[in-house]
Amino acid sequence: MAYLLAESQSQHTSESMNALPRLTRSALPKFAAILVFSLAATTFFAQNPTPAATWSDQDGLRITQDVQKRLGRLTNFSVFDWITFGFHGKTLVVKGYASRPILKSDISNALKGIPGVDSVDNQVEVLPNSPNDDRIRAAVYNRIFTQPSLRKYNANQGTIRQATGPGPNVAMMAGGITNSPPIGFHAIHIIVKNGNVTLFGVVNNEGDKAIAGIQANSTPGTFSIDNDLVVQGAASQPKAK
């Protein structure tokens, strides 16, 4: 799975995050988990006014942590997927991208029965099943994670082959990299839709963000690149309109 999920450091997902740790390899999983499942919710709230608070601070924190833990157990969540969540009243709203349909159904199943949550609105978009997109995923992955300055953001420290292990990979041969995504933690996620690439995640500095964007943009066959990586220290600042 892509993240080892940590508990939130904020009182609400709609509040600004606390001071962020430096992204050493040991800190990366915890920090990125907070970013994905807390910061993204902050952006969601800013763009979508919600009803008045319906939970106490204690209940809100409990529910947020419960959601984080359940999402953290998703074994089908990979470097080619992206998940965020927020609340609208007592409805849990989940957004993002799934490279495989099974992830969307796994999300719905994982979030059933959370005490205090009235319903789950699963708005995760299932990405097209495209051999060309699969080729781009593998190529962008290799270009980004073989860069010396970016290897630290990848638990596998290298190429697709290092990430999928030795020997023949039946799933990959049958259906491409989407069916057998790289294992382990990744701080940079690669979303590909009809040849268009978006980078999500968190990096240490603007230089690393720029390098990741350049590498993605130089991948043959890509139509467009959106670099939505967040730089540590700027994580609590909303994007300019």
Structure description:
With 241 residues, this protein is α/β, with parallel strands linked by helices. It folds into 2 domains: 28-126, GMP Synthetase, Chain A, domain 3, CATH 3.30.300; 131-231, no CATH class. The protein is 35% helix and 17% strand. Strands 1, 2, 3 and 4 form a 4-stranded mixed β-sheet that branches. Strands 5, 6, 7 and 8 form a 4-stranded mixed β-sheet that branches.
Number of helices: 7
**Global outline:** globular
Helix content: 25-40%
Structural class: alpha/beta
Q: Report how far the terminal alpha carbons are from each other.
A: 33 Å
Largest sheet: 4 strands, mixed
Low-confidence stretches: 1-47
Specify Rg, calculated over alpha carbons.
17 Å
* Number of distinct beta strands: 8
Strand content: 15-25%
Instruction: Kindly report the oligomeric state of this protein.
Output: single chain
Order of helices and strands: HHEEHEEHHHEEHEE
Domain tally: 2
Overall mean pLDDT = 76
